[in-house]
Amino acid sequence: MAHVTTQPASSTALRVGFLSRHLPSRDQLLRSEAVWLALMLFVAVIKILGETVVHVTYRSAGQESLFTWEAVITIASLGLVGIWSARATGFPVAWDVRATSAQRLLLPFAIGLGIGAVAVGIDVALAATPTIARALGQPSFNIDFPGSLLAYFGGGIEVETEYRLFSLPFLVWLISSVLLRGRGRQQTLWVIGALSAAYEPATQGGAIFVLAGGVVTPLMLAGYLVTSLLLNILAVVFFRRYGLLAPIALRWGDYLAFHILYGNFRHCGIDVERLPVCLAPTRPATAASSPGGRSASFFNVDSALSNFLYSVVFPA
Known about the structure:
Layout: H1 11-22, H2 26-52, H3 61-65, H4 69-88, H5 101-126, H6 128-136, H7 147-165, H8 167-179, H9 185-211, H10 218-242, H11 245-265, H12 275-279, H13 304-313
């Protein structure tokens, strides 16, 4: 009877096997990491234009902090970690061949426009953003045009990274692959996905409602939650189905409808003579002009996570 002897795998073979399982292929690099770096180059160009060509009237220090070089580098790094985690947990690559450009870009963008239009209707009915702007001593709730084009399209990438592109796949990987050793991935995805969808409505809407001292009514909060929850739930779904570009396109559509078009031109109406007044940038209010001496950044929680993350990476 023949005896078969087996030799233990060499350390070189083990290292090669480990690297082949965990390092992306050239095609994966081109379809995810390269796409992500292109997005971050876009953010970097926006930052440079905002400092040299277009005046951006940030409404709070929190908004402005998203466009420091420390924040851009931190977001870029977190995005790369998110891409690796997404690949390890079965998310599609950014430019997946199984999805069409209409699915990953046009459909989410159109739905985002629709959600933004609904938010406009709610705001017109409830006058929420004018009320908040008056309470904060600001001339507008939104950043002035044309700086708003830079701030909201660039900021949309950054906040979507915080809410979804990094946090969702990384936490799914950490819990299901590391802590649970490969078990319960689908259940983990449902739980973390629900938390991801609830994070922005809870922190932004809930915090403003609590901190604004009665300025924001329960009806205003409910109106905000309707569109914000829908936007964030769909962002999770689109990310899981079509990759990281889909939730960004969704947010861009919403921001274009609500913050850029409605937010900047609703006071102009059809009076062409007033258009230069609406386009003229205004200086943001100081802390002293806000109610109770509070600055607008006190109410801004959009960038709270990014402030914490890059303060860890770049300690003072």
